[in-house]
Amino acid sequence: MPEAEPFHIGLLGHGTVGAAFAALVDERADEVARITGRRPLISGVLTRSRGDAAGIIAGADVVVELMGGVDTAREHVLTALRAGTPVVTANKQLVSRHGPELWEAAAQGGTELRFEAAVAGVVPVIRVLGESLAGAHVDRIHGIVNGTTNYILSQMAATGASYADALREAQALGYAEADPTDDVTGADAAAKMAILARLAFGRWVHLDDVVYEGIEHVTADDIAYARELGLSLKLVGTAERVADGISVRVHPVFLYAEHPLAAIDGPYNAVTIESPAITEITLSGPGAGGPQTASAVLGDVVGVMRGTRPLPAADGPAKLVHDVRSSFYLHLEVDDRPGVLAQVAERLGLQGISVKSVVQRGLGETARLVIVSHPAPESRFLAAVRLLEALDFLRAAPRAIRVIDETFDVA
Amino acid sequence: MPEAEPFHIGLLGHGTVGAAFAALVDERADEVARITGRRPLISGVLTRSRGDAAGIIAGADVVVELMGGVDTAREHVLTALRAGTPVVTANKQLVSRHGPELWEAAAQGGTELRFEAAVAGVVPVIRVLGESLAGAHVDRIHGIVNGTTNYILSQMAATGASYADALREAQALGYAEADPTDDVTGADAAAKMAILARLAFGRWVHLDDVVYEGIEHVTADDIAYARELGLSLKLVGTAERVADGISVRVHPVFLYAEHPLAAIDGPYNAVTIESPAITEITLSGPGAGGPQTASAVLGDVVGVMRGTRPLPAADGPAKLVHDVRSSFYLHLEVDDRPGVLAQVAERLGLQGISVKSVVQRGLGETARLVIVSHPAPESRFLAAVRLLEALDFLRAAPRAIRVIDETFDVA
Q: Which positions of chain A have pLDDT values less than 70?
């Protein structure tokens, strides 16, 4: 076969992922040429210290943005898109903060922005949502989209370690960064869920509109008690259609063993997509590492080489709903005396919270009361918890954690 | 927005899947128009009793083949492809028997054949292999690609039922057909693995070249004994690169609990794809049902509407290897007397089989000997089993079942 014409890649960023991507392009160039008819060639590299961004972008058939950060990356990506050059990025902060501006620039330039690597590493959830399920009506996505927190929670469950100890271990193994804030607070997962919501529901959700809660306050006791009920604790992002709009949120939640995400342990990512036509599918794999991210980026580059596909306009349901219905696990430490359960049940009843299961266990002078509720508006449940906090027989602050107890319960 | 121009779908076949597809197109036409700019419209339907195939094909922008069977379907698909009309099919028999002819016709017509629904129902393994991983080097695929057999094996494991009883139950629930031959012999899974091998390795594998074995001879005892070793039994298809070529095969195998396929129970499908760049990803979801298959077909139709992408030529590794290396579980019922284990170990050693674990349990006059071997060429292992069959202390025929004991052990 004649020498394939080169396809020029302008690479912005040459850190861990950038270097892994450059190596992968070299390694796979023949195969990509076989598939696409053109040979990928890195025609310019912008590092922190050298390279002419304007020249690299101008000479590229595709720009690959792996520099991280938001401001400079945004400028370069906008420049490329407006000039009609497709862009592939792994930058979830960029996409979740400036998505609409980027997609408008792509539309203006008649080109596209791909970002598979920004969510769930090599797990191809972006492509599956945007292509395989392009014709499906997606009702709900649940995702474990942060490998760091999943590793920490898995270790706490497996060894009984405290949050602080499990975090230190994750840092020692390179699964958590020295400053783990972005991961452990749920902010990273929130950015990814915002991106998934855009694809699933055709509705832009700004990162600031995603309600999120991290794992910093989870205790080994929470996990141990819940295990008695057959539940496992994960940091789960949810994007779903609700009665009058959509909701996007991230919380520590308890899952029943039957849920496809319950078995995902360690530094892994997994996403469950629910739709009436398909019931549900689950995609899982390692969270982002250099080679995994590089592979996802190369998949997007190959996609671009085979023809660009603009993202459909955002005209999905407009309203973001914050007060969704959830089931809760509620853990109370109370004086072990008659009438306590009745008073707790009454407070819950006042807010319309109905109880699914109760386990009470005496611990000498105190008792542990574990309640799982039926779904109810979160505002009502949290109001009930405030009522409970005023009760004089309470020995410790109530612990409330959401429970996902519907598998395949598609609205 | 102005009325979108129609995109004409010629529908061949109007059974369960055909009717579900037609209903889904009606339901999702607006959304598809939003995404693609054209409105899908079923412009002709060929049923068993009515319809003019030539006219339907000639008037179509895409032909959707859901008639099943091979000969007539093949004719119609070839006619469409040669005329440059893209075709979407769910027909695994057609693709696995006549793939090269169909792809040649597509190349000749400058169009493409899509067949996501032919493998693993709504689990988007075809698209992930063909697009997300187009630039990756895939080493191995393990798949549970037949929901009927997975349901039967799950029931046997959960209830201790015999194969015959579990099959009857599957038939009563509609998970197995009245004539279950194609499923329970592994033939259906073999056809699907042949298709996956084509995509993963760029090498056409005819169905006749896939070695397969079904689940008809699996006993409840096999499952119960293996559980003591922490193993679960699944019908797994494997397509992998080996030292001097590729191997495609389907067997009942034991999986360790850590393997991503071990937890897939019930009428589900799941596929694990291993590659150095990604470690491994797993895709899972319900096996084919009418709505699931229809959804996968519509995903392909939307793909076609967004631009056709011919399949790259088949020029992967040429050699099909049949004598691969496997680990085995070996179950022997023997007289309980001294020297038995030594004689068994000697026969295995003669064929170069090394033992990973042995459990011996006395049962009165007899003993049960369960051995798990390290990987060795299958021909050597089977030769060792023949040697064992000649031993006079054997009380029943040896039971040998393959074990997948490498997770993430990418060659």
A: 1-2, 316-317, 406-411
* pLDDT tens per residue across span B330-343: 999 999 888 899 99
Lookup: tokens for A119:
């969510």
State the DSSP code for B239. E
For A143, A311, B329, B385, the CA distances from B388, given in Å and listed in that order, are 51, 63, 14, 5
Closest to B256 measured CA to CA, from B281, B235, B226, B278:
B226
Task: Please tell me the predicted confidence (pLDDT) of residue A409.
Answer: 37
Q: Residues of B266-304 as b/e, b for ≥16 C-beta within 10 angstroms? A: ebbbbbbbbbebbbbbbbbbbbbbbbbbbbbbbbbbbbb
Each residue's pLDDT tens digit, B100-136? 999 999 999 999 999 999 998 889 999 898 888 877 8
Beta-carbon separation of B283 and A282 below 8 A: yes
Q: In this complex, how many residue pairs, one in chain A and one in chain B, have their CB atoms less than 8 Å apart?
A: 165
Query: Residue A261 has what DSSP assignment?
Result: T
Contact A232, A255 (CB under 8 A): yes
pLDDT tens digit sequence for A336-369: 888 899 999 999 999 999 999 888 888 888 999 9
Per CB-CB distance under 8 Å, the chain B contacts of A128 are: 124, 127-128
Return the pLDDT at B318: 72
Q: Which domains does chain B have, with CATH numbers?
A: 5-118 (3.40.50.720), 138-285 (3.30.360.10), 325-404 (3.30.70.260)
> What is the C-alpha to C-alpha distance for residues A187 and A210, in angstroms, rounded to an integer?
9
Confidence of residue B379 (pLDDT cuts 50, 70, 90): very high
Name residue, tokens 């990814």.
Answer: A192
CB A112 within 8 A of CB A249: no
Residues of B in contact with A299 (CB under 8 A): 131-136
SS3 A322: coil
Instruction: For residues B77 and B81, give the distance between their C-alpha atoms in angstroms, rounded to a whole number.
Output: 6
Among B35, B134, B278, beta carbon nearest to A134: B35
Active site residue B92: no
Residue pair A118/A91 in contact (Cβ under 8 Å)? The answer is yes
d(CA A83, CA A204): 24
CB A269 within 8 A of CB A286: yes
| CB-based contact A360:A367 (threshold 8 Å) | yes
User: How high is the pLDDT of residue B410?
Assistant: 32
Q: What is the pLDDT of residue A316?
A: 67
For residue range B24-82, what is the model confidence (pLDDT) as tens digits? 999 999 989 988 889 999 999 999 899 899 999 999 999 999 998 999 999 999 999 99
**CA A129 – CA A20 distance, rounded (Å):** 26
Tens digits of residue pLDDT in B2-30: 678 999 999 999 999 999 999 999 999 99
State the pLDDT at residue B411.
30
Give A260 to chain B, closest Cα distance, Å. 9
Closest CA to B119 of B139, B100, B147, B138: B147
From B386's Cα to the closest Cα of chain A, the distance in A is: 40
Considering only the beta carbons, identify the residue of A202, A279, A315 that sits closest to B285: A279
Q: Give the per-residue pLDDT at A244.
A: 84
pLDDT value at residue B4: 85
Query: Helix A92-109 to helix A187-201 angle, to the nearest 10 degrees?
Result: 30
Q: Say yes or no to pLDDT of B357 above 50.
A: yes
Q: What is the DSSP string of B321-338?
A: P-S-EEEEEEEEEEE--T
- Nearest residue of chain B to residue A300 (CA atoms): B132
CA nearest neighbour of B325 among B379, B276, B280, B372? B379
Out of A35, A263, A275, the one facing B134 most closely (by C-beta) is A35
In the sheet where A38-46 sits, what is the strand order?
A38-46, A5-12, A62-65, A87-89, A113-114
| DSSP, residue by residue, B97-142 | HHHHHHHHHHHHHT--EE-GGGSSTTS-HHHIIIIITTTS---EEE
